[in-house]
Amino acid sequence: MEVELESILHSITELTGIKLRDCWTNHKDPCFTSGDIRINNKGEIEPCETVLSHPIDQLNAVCLDYIMEVVGEEETDLKIKPDTIQVQKFPARSSSKYSQLSDHYGLSIILHSN
């Protein structure tokens, strides 16, 4: 997936002259926003969510979401605060038949103003 993302970013720069930086690439934790997995008490890999996700998408453990920053553009007051990106899992109430509100997670990041 990283090679595909690099190719997309390169194509955007070539076509528009705008350079983008993926804010997650160098993050310390793995990023799964779809097909998240866990190890059960038998030591086996199993999907974290099975109601909303199609079986073909379960266990694929991929990142479908990105947060991009424009690099080298005119300075603005709004900046990305480094190392604040997080996966948001959107858990459902325990009384629900669903374990989460969506078939995939989202990403969040803190912005600050100078």
Annotate the secondary structure layout.
Blueprint: H1 2-16, E1 19-22, E2 37-39, E3 45-47, E4 68-71, E5 78-80, E6 86-88, E7 106-108, E8 111-113
Antiparallel strand pairs: 1-4, 2-3, 5-8, 6-7
Low-confidence stretches: none
Q: Main sheet?
A: 2 strands, antiparallel
- Rg value: 17 Å
What is the mean predicted local confidence, pLDDT? 81
Q: List the strand order in the largest sheet.
A: 1-4
Question: Which structural class best describes the helix and strand composition?
Answer: alpha+beta
- Helicity range: 10-25%
> Quick one: how many beta strands?
8
Number of domains: 1
Assembly state (oligomeric): single chain
Keywords:
single chain; 114 residues; alpha+beta; two-stranded antiparallel ribbon; 1 helix; 13% helix; elongated
